[in-house]
Design brief:
- It is built from twelve helices and 23 strands.
- The chain has about 500 residues and is an alpha+beta fold.
- It folds into three domains: about 200 residues, FAD/NAD(P)-binding domain (3-Layer(bba) Sandwich); about 70 residues; about 110 residues, Glutaredoxin, CATH 3.40.30.
- It has an eight-stranded mixed β-sheet. Strands 8-2-1-12-19-18 form a six-stranded mixed β-sheet.
- A hairpin with a 4-residue loop joins β10 and β11.
C-alpha cells in the first residue's frame, strides 16, 4: 500500500489540504480532472480567520500582496444606510477582508504547494474506489485514457458541490435540501459612489443584492433570483442586471459594458457525516451554502486545516486516533449548521415585505448598528474570528472563573509571536510562565508540544492551544497536572503519569 493520502480536487480546499499534510510530513497525491485552473471567480473573499490559517502555510503574504483589502461593509435599504460594519477593530493580524479572485487564490496556493515538492496531477480523474477497513483502493483515469489502480491509507474528497466521492459514498444531508438561483455580473456602473474599499449590501423584499468594486471602472453585482422578473432565466443579460439594480439598489445606478454575466444554481446541503471509514469530505463536497456572507470557500479551507493536523498525528501513532478523527465531523458539521442558521436569520430580516415591518426593521437596525459592541460582533462573525468549537469532544472541562478564551475558542494572535501551528509537525502550544510542573510537561510531551514556552495570556494561568489555534484547555498554574491528564486522555501520549506535575 502506498503511504500517500489521495486528495481529489485541486481547488482552494484541496490545495490547502495537500499543503498542510505535506508540510507535516504526510505523503500526498492530489488529482484534478480539469486540465487547467479555473478562470472564473465566484469566490472572491478571504476573511480574517482564513488568512490567519493560511499564514501557517507560508501563503498569507503572497495572497495579501495579490489581493485588495476591504475595510467595511455597508447595509442599506434603498438609498438609506442602515449601518456600517468596520473590520479595523478585529483582534487579528488581518483586520480586513481580502478581495482576491478565486483563480488567483488557486494560483498562489498551487505555487505554495509546489514549493513543498508536490505537483497537481491535472487531467486525472477518480473513476471508482473501494472503502476498505485498512486502506482505500482507487482507480484513476488520465486524460489519455490510461488507468491506474492504487491503494491509499486515506482518501479526501475536495471535489466540489457535485462531488463524485460524496455520491459514491451515498451520504445524505441533514435537513431539507434547498436550491436557489443566483446572478453574477461584472460590469461598469455609473452612479455607484461607494469607496472601493467598502462593500454595499441591500435589504429588499425581493431578495439579496450586493455590489462591490473589482477594479477601477469594474464592479461585481451579485443577487439571488427568487423574484427577478418572476422566473430565473437560463442565461443572464444586461437587462436583468439593470432590472435588479433599479428594483433593489440605491437608485440612479446604470450598468454597462459587461465582461462576465452568469446565472447559477446552488443546491444547499450539509452532509450528515463528513467521514465514512477511511474517506473524508471537505469543502463544497460536504456542505454548500448560498453566497450571502461569502463564506463557502473559507469554510472549506477551515475544514482542511482542521482535518490535516489530526491525520498527521494519527500517522505519527497517537493512542486516541479514532476519537481524534471522529472529532473532525463533530466540529466542522456544527460550524456549518451554525452558518446555515445565521444566513437564514439574516435573509429573513432582509426580506421582510410588510411596509410597517420594514420601517420597524430599519429603525431597529439603525439603533443596533449604532452600538459599538453590536458592530464588533457582526464584524467578528463575518470575519469568522468568533467561530469555534465550544461543544467539541476534544475540549477539556471549562472553568468559567478563569479569564480569556475557554476551550474550543480561538486564541487571538499574540503580538510578536509567530502563528500557531507552523513547522513540520502538528504541535500544541503552551502559554504560561516557566516552573517545575511546566518544565516537566514539556519534557514528557516533547514530541507533541512546541519546544518553546509562549508568554502567558493572563497571570497565573496556563493555556494549551491546538495546532489550529483553538484552546484545548485552560488551568491555573497549580493545576498543571490537568494538562498532563488532558494530553494523555484526549490525544494519547506517554502512558506513565508524571507524579511531579
Amino acid at each position: 500500500m502506498s503511504e500517500q493520502v489521495l486528495i481529489v480536487g485541486a481547488g482552494p480546499v484541496g490545495l490547502t489540504m495537500a499543503t498542510e499534510l505535506r508540510r507535516y510530513g504526510v505523503p500526498v497525491r492530489i488529482i484534478e480532472k480539469t486540465t487547467q485552473r479555473t478562470d472564473q471567480s465566484r469566490a472572491l473573499f478571504l476573511w480574517s480567520r482564513t488568512l490567519e490559517l493560511l499564514d501557517r502555510l507560508g501563503a498569507g503574504e503572497a495572497l495579501v500582496a495579490a489581493g485588495r483589502k476591504v475595510e467595511a461593509v455597508n447595509i442599506l435599504s434603498g438609498s438609506k444606510r442602515i449601518g456600517r460594519v468596520d473590520f479595523a477593530d478585529i483582534e487579528s493580524a488581518h483586520p480586513y477582508a481580502l478581495m482576491l479572485p478565486q483563480a488567483e487564490t488557486e494560483r498562489v496556493l498551487e505555487e505554495n504547494l509546489a514549493a513543498h515538492g508536490v505537483k497537481v496531477e491535472r487531467g486525472t480523474e477518480l473513476v471508482t474506489f473501494t472503502n476498505g477497513d485498512n486502506a482505500v483502493s482507487a482507480t484513476l483515469r488520465r486524460a489519455d485514457g490510461t488507468e491506474e489502480t492504487l491503494t491509499a491509507p486515506w482518501l479526501i474528497g475536495c471535489d466540489g458541490g457535485g462531488s463524485f466521492v460524496r455520491k459514491t459514498l451515498g451520504l445524505s444531508s441533514t435537513g431539507p435540501a434547498q436550491q436557489s438561483d443566483w446572478l453574477i455580473a461584472d460590469v461598469h456602473l455609473a452612479g455607484f459612489d461607494f469607496p472601493p474599499t467598502e462593500l454595499a449590501s441591500f435589504w429588499h423584499e425581493d431578495g439579496f443584492l450586493a455590489i462591490f468594486t473589482l477594479a477601477p471602472g469594474r464592479h461585481r453585482v451579485i443577487a439571488d433570483l427568487r423574484h427577478a422578473q418572476g422566473v430565473a432565466p437560463l442565461e443572464a443579460d444586461l437587462d436583468l442586471v439593470q432590472y435588479i439594480l433599479h428594483k433593489r439598489g440605491p437608485g440612479g445606478v446604470i450598468a454597462s459594458a459587461p465582461s462576465w454575466l452568469s446565472t447559477f444554481r446552488i443546491h444547499e446541503r450539509n452532509v450528515t457525516n463528513y467521514r465514512a471509514g477511511r474517506v473524508f469530505l471537505a469543502g463544497d463536497a460536504a456542505h454548500v451554502h448560498n453566497p450571502v456572507g461569502a463564506q463557502g470557500m473559507n469554510m472549506g479551507i477551515h475544514d482542511a486545516v482542521n482535518l490535516a493536523w489530526k491525520l498527521a498525528l494519527v500517522r505519527q501513532g497517537v493512542a486516541n486516533a479514532e476519537a481524534l478523527l471522529e472529532s473532525y465531523n463533530v466540529e466542522r458539521h456544527a460550524v456549518a449548521e451554525h452558518l446555515v442558521a445565521e444566513i437564514g436569520r439574516a435573509s429573513a430580516i432582509s426580506l421582510i415585505k410588510i411596509p410597517s415591518a420594514q420601517f420597524a426593521r430599519n429603525l431597529l437596525g439603525n439603533i443596533f448598528f449604532g452600538l459599538a459592541p453590536a458592530r464588533r460582533a457582526v464584524a467578528e462573525t463575518l470575519s469568522e474570528v468568533s467561530l469555534g468549537y465550544r461543544d467539541s469532544p476534544l475540549n477539556a472541562e471549562e472553568d468559567h472563573a478563569l479569564p480569556g478564551p475557554g476551550p474550543g475558542e480561538r486564541l487571538p494572535p499574540q503580538p510578536g509571536q509567530p502563528p500557531l501551528g507552523m513547522g513540520d509537525s502538528p504541535r500544541f502550544a503552551l502559554f504560561g510562565a516557566p516552573g517545575p510542573g511546566v518544565d516537566a510537561l514539556q519534557v514528557k510531551y516533547a514530541g507533541l508540544l512546541e519546544p518553546d514556552l509562549r508568554p502567558p495570556v493572563s497571570p497565573r494561568c496556563l493555556w494549551l492551544v491546538r495546532p489550529d489555534g483553538y484552546v484545548a484547555a485552560e488551568v491555573l498554574e497549580e493545576d498543571v497536572h490537568q494538562l498532563d491528564d488532558y494530553l494523555y486522555r484526549y490525544i494519547g501520549g506517554d502512558a506513565t503519569t508524571a507524579a511531579s506535575l
